[in-house]
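Figure 2 data, in text form.
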Amino acid sequence: MASRAATKQSPLFVCIIGTRPEVIKMAPIIRRLREVRWADVRVVAIGQHLELLDQAIADFELQIDHRIAVERQRNSIIEIAAKIMERFDVLADRLSPTCVIAQGDTTTVMASAMVAFHRRLEFIHVEAGLRTGVLRAPFPEEFNRRVVALAATLHCAPTAQAAANLRAEGVREQDCIVTGNTVIDALLYMAGRTLPLPADFPDVPKPILLTAHRRENAGAPLERMLGALRAVVERYPDVGLYFPVHPNPDTQRLAERVMSGHERIRLVPAQNYPTLVAALKASWLVVTDSGGLQEEAPALGKPVLVLRDVTERPEAVDCGAARLVGTLPDRLHHSIAELHDNSQAYQAMAQPRFPYGDGHAADRIVAAIAERIHIRDPSSTISGQVLGAGPVDPTTVSSDENSID
């Protein structure tokens, strides 16, 4: 999907991706920029296993333009950040972009923001303003996002609360816009396609979708949580578990040791986005420490139990779609049992809600960028309410069928 009618005089936008979640949330912006007539867009992939990003971005009918491979010789975030800054600086010198656009709070985003700052480039931060208020939780993401906020020239906050966090830190009103979250754009784009249910999805009335990858939950906390989830499956014959396991070898060994050998527990490799959306749609409940699923599941009416003590995404908790359960096994087991045994409690959480936007976040972001760099683009004029109301009839994306039609 090439930029349409971009010329040599068109402003050049470098869009950074380094993880599959970043691909999902950046893809709607990249697609929108490539639709307009005034933008030259380059997708820059930065990371260790860039081949993993190829399929993720192909799912959105896009492609990578430049690759920066970053090998890890030591298990050091400092090493990775230094290599990213050095190598992205070389590419930025060659491309001379007008703007750098990146999403979220990874070390890749933080390092690219520092390069943009030192080069005096516009840096557009997507999903800006998320805060737990605890500098080391999550680690290092909370630190990263605060550093990025210092370098960003335009802050695209997904919610009003995120924008308020930024203003409390001194960000000027004119440098911050509430856009909604692009993950809802991506979810609705994918939900509009026919997606078959994974063949190994548990064939039970109440399947649970589990994802767990946070660094702070690794080791003993994860072992406790997995033990509690196995106990739930053993207690209830109508419950099964679908667990796409993070590729980290320690996590895989732990999952095999605690969870293998039960016919209603399915351990599978990390899944591509279309498959994960199909599994999400078919699930009865989501148990996760993932930020993305905290945002996506409410839009499909799926209750979420969050395996964290604090979250930078309080809107899902505030509207009743999610509940913080931490990592204590008894609390997790009790929470699932309550939803299983009390249909009223389950239905109270299972109403489709849209605290993170209406599916037009990318339109708002591109319109704000056009205004910032003084481009008059009549096609980029999405406005109005962005939060709290569903953009589509929820029954079209949340049913008990095995595919999303």
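Caption note: The chain is about 40% helix and 15% strand.
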